[in-house]
C-alpha cells in the first residue's frame, strides 16, 4: 500500500512540474524582439500613433480593460478597429510572448 501511495505521489509531482514548467511560460525577451518587428511601428515606447489616448501604458491598459495577458492576447490575435489581427502572422506562443512583454513594460513605465 505504501508503494502504491509513493508511486502515485511521485506521478503527481512529475505532472505538476511538467505542466507548470517555466519553459512553457511566455518569454518576455522573445516578446521584445517580436514587438520590435511587428508592433513598434505604431506602439514605439508604449505609445499609440493611431489613437493617442489608447497607449500601452499601465493607466491606459487599465482604463480600457486591457491590463491582462488574456485581453492583450485577444486584441493581438483578432485585432480591433485600426489594429490589424496578427493571428496569421504570429503563432499563439509568439502572441503570448508579446503580451508578456507589453505587461512587463507597462509595469515598468516603458523604459
Automatic annotation (TrEMBL):
<dbReference type="InterPro" id="IPR008168">
    <property type="entry name" value="Cyt_C_IC"/>
</dbReference>
<feature type="binding site" description="covalent">
    <location>
        <position position="42"/>
    </location>
    <ligand>
        <name>heme c</name>
    </ligand>
</feature>
<dbReference type="InterPro" id="IPR023655">
    <property type="entry name" value="Cyt_C6"/>
</dbReference>
<keyword id="KW-0479">Metal-binding</keyword>
<keyword id="KW-0408">Iron</keyword>
<protein>
    <recommendedName>
        <fullName>Cytochrome c6</fullName>
    </recommendedName>
</protein>
<keyword id="KW-0813">Transport</keyword>
<keyword id="KW-0602">Photosynthesis</keyword>
<feature type="binding site" description="covalent">
    <location>
        <position position="39"/>
    </location>
    <ligand>
        <name>heme c</name>
    </ligand>
</feature>
<dbReference type="InterPro" id="IPR036909">
    <property type="entry name" value="Cyt_c-like_dom_sf"/>
</dbReference>
<keyword id="KW-0793">Thylakoid</keyword>
<dbReference type="Pfam" id="PF13442">
    <property type="entry name" value="Cytochrome_CBB3"/>
</dbReference>
<comment type="similarity">
    <text>Belongs to the cytochrome c family. PetJ subfamily.</text>
</comment>
<dbReference type="InterPro" id="IPR009056">
    <property type="entry name" value="Cyt_c-like_dom"/>
</dbReference>
<keyword id="KW-0249">Electron transport</keyword>
<feature type="binding site" description="axial binding residue">
    <location>
        <position position="43"/>
    </location>
    <ligand>
        <name>heme c</name>
    </ligand>
</feature>
<keyword id="KW-0349">Heme</keyword>
<comment type="function">
    <text>Functions as an electron carrier between membrane-bound cytochrome b6-f and photosystem I in oxygenic photosynthesis.</text>
</comment>
<keyword id="KW-0732">Signal</keyword>
<feature type="binding site" description="axial binding residue">
    <location>
        <position position="83"/>
    </location>
    <ligand>
        <name>heme c</name>
    </ligand>
</feature>
<feature type="domain" description="Cytochrome c">
    <location>
        <begin position="26"/>
        <end position="106"/>
    </location>
</feature>
<comment type="subunit">
    <text>Monomer.</text>
</comment>
<feature type="signal peptide">
    <location>
        <begin position="1"/>
        <end position="25"/>
    </location>
</feature>
Amino acid at each position: 500500500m505504501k508503494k502504491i501511495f509513493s508511486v502515485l505521489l511521485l506521478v503527481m509531482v512529475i505532472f505538476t512540474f511538467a505542466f507548470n514548467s517555466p519553459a512553457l511560460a511566455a518569454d518576455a525577451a522573445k516578446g521584445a524582439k517580436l514587438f520590435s518587428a511587428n508592433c513598434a511601428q505604431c506602439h514605439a515606447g508604449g505609445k499609440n500613433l493611431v489613437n493617442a489616448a489608447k497607449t500601452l501604458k499601465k493607466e491606459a491598459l487599465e482604463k480600457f480593460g486591457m491590463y491582462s495577458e488574456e485581453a492583450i492576447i485577444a486584441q493581438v490575435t483578432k485585432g480591433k478597429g485600426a489594429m490589424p489581427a496578427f493571428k496569421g502572422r504570429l503563432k499563439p506562443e509568439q502572441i503570448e510572448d508579446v503580451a508578456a512583454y507589453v505587461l512587463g513594460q507597462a509595469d515598468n513605465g516603458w523604459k
